[in-house]
Amino acid sequence: MSAASNRRGPGATIPPTPAGLVVPPAVPVPPGLLAAQVGAPGIEAAPHRPSLAELVETSGLRRVHMLAWRDLDDPESGGSELHADKVAELWAQAGIDVSLRTAVASGHPESVHRNGYTVVRKAGRYSVFPRTAVSGALGRGGPWDGLVEIWNGMPFFSPVWARCPRVVFLHHVHAEMWRMVLSPKLARIGETVEFKIAPPLYRRTRILTLSPSSRHEIIDLLGLPPRNISVVPPGIDPSFSPAGERSPHPLVLAVGRLVPVKRFDVLIDGLVHAHDEHPTMEAVIVGEGYERVELEKRISAAGAGGWLRLVGRVDDDALLTLYRRAWVLASASAREGWGMTITEAAACGTPSVATKIAGHTDAVVDGETGVLVEDPADLGKTLAGVLTDHDLRARLSAGALAHAATFTWAQTARSTFAALVREAARHQGRRSSAARAADLVGPHR
């Protein structure tokens, strides 16, 4: 996931929207797919599904602490940080006192109040994990009614020291990512922790992940019990919506941190291939990261500087404009828990061409909202084909809009809190009315 990394700092200048291809209208939903109306013969009123505020009111959970490696102000923040921010914001709006502890963010204060919750930044990039664990074991900052650990590669080992109800957000297994970003020695340490040390300690912990495909990987690669792994998809901000006109020329957009796991080098090669078949094509890569210099060299060596731009981070309005103007969103990523930029683009009516990996296989309904590519080397050929076929793009656009409409942050926040409520009931050894209400919300697996 990478959406948040592209919305911090000054935005790049985006040219005004020219006349071009109009966003195709959504295909009407067939009557058979519409929800049955309460009151129709044989249809009974569904049980009341409590709102997040109602769950909070009956839960007895008032102070919730979240642990994360980074927060939105970190230069390398991405989709995981955006997810934590959205959940924390909505929980705070519902009456929860939410605090988020992370590593320090260069140039930012130790403590900040954001979107209704408090961020406390202490310790460095690697020392944040042991220092947070020691602090928690000593009860500093507590007591808390609930704890949320965000396991982003390196865990905080909350099962060892936390005494309150807990859930863990684990968006995806890191696997080969360790060797992509760390020295061989540090990579071996990361792999050992992820695959050998951590799993036995988390076997009794409720794990929340973003997609069924990521759930399968967590079960298969980490060996965690299926009964403890639940799926709660991320939401989409309602600001992402179709409007205006498409670029008059083929425009391919990619959004993400410029880091090895996103494989922008592979994507650039694919874009060059697609450009050979569509000489008027333009491409924009949004995002920042330490691979930027090498990627700029690659673009220059390919002679693509005139039509392929690295624009860095952009503000929300500029990103929205690009989503709406693009013909296709592309991703060559090797690891994702979901692919939040894919569904943000989909909410603007923009289909995707992406690698067939865990996360992407749920964010993209292959052949209906976009196209998934087994071999990353085929990205360029697939992109060229989608750019050529107007009818295919129109159909994928309609499918993308319909699929994106099913994801909301309100449902994400409610379902994640419901999981914490059920863990609180288990912690207390009794079934409360709040836990029974949480059962109506999900997640159930």
UniProtKB/TrEMBL annotation:
Task: Note the Gene3D superfamilies from the entry.
Answer: Glycogen Phosphorylase B
GO MF entries: glycosyltransferase activity
The Glycosyl transferase family domain, residue ranges? 244-399
Q: Please tell me whether the keyword Glycosyltransferase is annotated for this protein.
A: yes
Read off the InterPro entries from this record.
Glyco_trans_1 (IPR001296), Glyco_trans_4-like_N (IPR028098)
Alphabetically sorted, this entry's keywords are: Glycosyltransferase, Transferase
Q: Which GO terms describe its biological process?
A: lipopolysaccharide biosynthetic process
Tell me the ranges covered by the Glycosyltransferase subfamily 4-like N-terminal domain, including all copies: 78-239
Name the domain of life this protein comes from: Bacteria
Signal peptide (UniProt feature, chain positions): none
Its name, as the record gives it, is Glycosyl transferase, group 1
| Source species taxonomy | Bacteria, Bacillati, Actinomycetota, Actinomycetes, Frankiales
